[in-house]
Amino acid sequence: MSGTTIPEIVYDAAPETRELTVLGPRTSSLAGAPVESVHVLHRNPGGRSGIWECTPGRFDSARNGDTELMHFIAGAGTITTADGTVHDIRPGVVLVAPDGWRGTWDISETVRKVYTIWATSTE
């Protein structure tokens, strides 16, 4: 057995109410003025986990070299993939955006999610 341990993440506040750090306006905004906030729970060279929030607006997004698991805990909106598939955003929804995914977020009510992103690129 290896001596590697599982990192323990201990919330000092519930993810729904945790104070986040404002990152600022979403750079690829298509409509509105979405503002992102985050709290990183764990980070290493292979990926990161945390809590992310974004105010209403519309923007494009893509996964390049990584995959993301998203568990939405607040808010409302949709994510439309490049092939036209529409996914609802609401509390309890879990989505995976695989490496190479592209789509558009349309947030109607401030969204908050717990996420894990891991590197999938072999370069």
Choose one word for the global shape: globular
Q: Roughly how many Å is the radius of gyration? A: 15 Å
What is the name of the CATH architecture?
A: Sandwich
Name the CATH homologous superfamily: Jelly Rolls
CATH class: Mainly Beta
Bin the helical content: under 10%
- Which class do the helix and strand fractions yield? mainly beta
Mean pLDDT: 91
Number of strands: 9
InterPro entries: RmlC-like_jellyroll, RmlC_Cupin_sf, UGlyAH_Cupin_dom
Pfam family, one: Cupin_3
Protein name: (S)-ureidoglycine aminohydrolase cupin domain-containing protein
Describe the structure.
The structure is a single chain. With 123 residues, the protein is mainly β. It has one domain: Sandwich (Jelly Rolls). 0% of the residues lie in helices and 61% in strands. It contains no helices and nine strands. Strands 1, 2, 3, 4, 5, 6, 7, 8 and 9 form a nine-stranded antiparallel sheet that branches. A hairpin with a 2-residue loop joins strand 3 and strand 4. The radius of gyration is 15 Å and the shape is globular. It starts with 20 loop residues before the first strand and ends with a strand. 18% of the residues are buried. The mean pLDDT is 91.
